[in-house]
């Protein structure tokens, strides 16, 4: 018995080593990426790069990209765009013209993606991006741009549905629901506003506050005072991490008692760590959460992705793996799938294969519309319950019940 | 338009909101006034328009934040520590850069401080990362509440903001007294009036300049250490404070140090009123409009004076 176990172990090891050996013998597929490694987007830029690299390693360990009897590994040429759009566009030109890359990965943020997309489009280079959510990216008729993430107008739209649901439970109608919106004056946040506006209009809700936060916002007491006076049922805030941090701090200070508060960038601003109880019962939108029941053969479950990623990058051990990382890995996975289905390195064939993608991944379903955005994955809403982020909507993936009305922490 | 009328209506319906807006405005204005005070000093004494003003503020915030998160320093102690550390950084900056441009024309010093602003922001970004940071001041150990509420909770006074205003007031009084009473303060004022005459009378203007610039940097640092308890900081948020400081100093008029404090408080309150009535997006527009009004008024006043002269 012992012997057979040893033998099977040995065979297992041998098989594994041949698989690795095979992956090591694979040729390279070179991909280009301009990414923010310095400048104001540096934190998320690095999250993105780590996500790319982790997926590349994982795919190589699983035998690489198989096409016929050949196999390939991804190799990415990175440049630092310094969080500047014009620099990103120049670097994209350089990657395509000098480094002769045939495929591109996206940068971090909608702004950078907006700067690069016209370049990749001009040279007909397919680009899969994972960090540009603005819907303005998908109404320009781009043919070579694909995004694995949900577009930004969906970020907080599910909060509107949730508010409607709660109103009906209380025997009221959607028309009784008052909505307050405070978003930053930038393309991403304005998309979020548009999504919330559209959905609340459709449901017949009343928007009582609709304010745009300045970029150099330092204080939002003026808006919160109005919230106190007008008593909306749903307060929506989006202003990147500065907006989230300012809002949570002042919501706590001013004891804002709106029954439902939804915002973006809670994790980035670390509102639970910084402001503790003030953040209680606030709803936060996310592209992905490790508690979701998504799964695929390479990365396993979403939870498994989190565990393995933390093992590979110990600096994340104490925090949550950000969704920016997960979606970056998903972008690489889409490339692998597309190359294998195309069975060719021809960029046009690869582009068509990407467009035809329809797969389930640890990050969620991925299927592109004609415009290039992912239509198979919903946005997720988590609620901060006792300092933990618990998924509460959409109900199909919810692990916890939503606390309504919100109880402000003491 | 409806929204504006609705907002004005709210002010009339709930008169106590007016009081809240003024209190909020003064608390905000006090912090802007601190940064502006330092700028007025440097501008008046050295004729250097320091575009890195806001970055000194953020720098002070990071000093306090870093000590609090790594060594558990109490955020209140962060204020004097940031004052001292930023004094040192200010002195270094003066010796390395400012002393070389001080005698040159306006454009050179503007360019130099603009470059400094970019460099400081980037250094902070590399050192501390680009995430927003803040500190929570917990004063319950001192037997105080963290928040005080009045008028059915409509007016709130967070302890952090109140302490911030008190610290700002202490700092400002200290600086004013120092300028009036101390030898160095007299030397600074003499240099501001006429640097050449001051030199003739044996004042080491080089030392005065170095001292003034370091003092400015230290005041900014202390302001930043207060701001990190009240709002949030990020390496690239310095520009907000630079712009506000310029608006306040210009509105107050050069050489008018008490005026700077009054203008700071006034602009704080005006911004709060403006953002209540027109929407928070117009907050800074209000400040700049106010500046424009003051400048136009001054121009008219000066024209009258000139006519007298003719």
Characterise this structure.
The complex is a heterodimer of chains A (410) and B (310). Chain A has helices spanning 2-25, 42-61, 85-97, 110-122, 157-169, 187-203, 221-230, 240-253, 271-275, 302-312, 323-342, 347-355; strands at residues 27-35, 65-67, 70-80, 103-105, 127-129, 145-147, 178-184, 206-213, 234-238, 260-263, 283-286, 295-296, 300-301, 358-361, 364-367, 380-385, 388-393. Chain A is an alpha/beta fold. Chain A has two domains: 16-150 and 290-367, 3-Layer(aba) Sandwich (Rossmann fold), CATH 3.40.50.2300; 154-286 and 380-397, Response regulator (Rossmann fold). In chain A, helix 2 (42-61) crosses helix 11, helix 3 (85-97) runs parallel beside helix 4 and helix 11 (323-342) packs across helix 12 (347-355). The termini of chain A are far apart. Chain B is mainly alpha-helical and 310 residues long. Chain B is built from twelve helices and two strands. In chain B, helix 2 packs antiparallel against helix 9 (205-230), helix 7 packs across helix 9 and helix 10 (238-252) runs parallel beside helix 12. The model of chain B has no long low-confidence stretch (mean pLDDT 88). Chain A binds chain B through residues 38-43, 182, 185, 210-214, 216-223, 225-226, 228-230, 241-242, 245-246, 249, 253-255, 268-270, 274-276, and chain B through 3, 7, 10, 13-14, 17, 20-21, 24, 28, 122, 125-126, 129-134, 136, 147, 149, 153-154, 156, 158, 227, 231-232, 234-237, 239-240, 243, 272, 275-276, 279-281, 283-284.
Brief description of this entry?
The complex is a heterodimer of chains A (410) and B (310). By secondary structure, chain A is an alpha/beta fold.
Write the layout of secondary structure elements.
The complex is a heterodimer of chains A (410) and B (310).
Chain A: H1 2-25, E1 27-35, H2 42-61, E2 65-67, E3 70-80, H3 85-97, E4 103-105, H4 110-122, E5 127-129, E6 145-147, H5 157-169, E7 178-184, H6 187-203, E8 206-213, H7 221-230, E9 234-238, H8 240-253, E10 260-263, H9 271-275, E11 283-286, E12 295-296, E13 300-301, H10 302-312, H11 323-342, H12 347-355, E14 358-361, E15 364-367, E16 380-385, E17 388-393
Parallel strand pairs in A: 1-3, 1-4, 4-5, 5-6, 7-8, 7-9, 9-10, 10-11
Antiparallel strand pairs in A: 2-3, 11-16, 12-13, 14-15, 16-17
Helix pairs in contact in A: 2-11, 3-4, 5-6, 11-12
Chain B: H1 2-13, H2 16-46, H3 53-71, H4 75-101, H5 106-128, E1 147-150, E2 155-158, H6 159-181, H7 183-193, H8 195-200, H9 205-230, H10 238-252, H11 257-278, H12 283-309
Antiparallel strand pairs in B: 1-2
Helix pairs in contact in B: 2-6, 2-9, 2-10, 2-11, 3-4, 3-5, 3-9, 3-10, 4-9, 6-7, 6-9, 7-9, 10-11, 10-12, 11-12
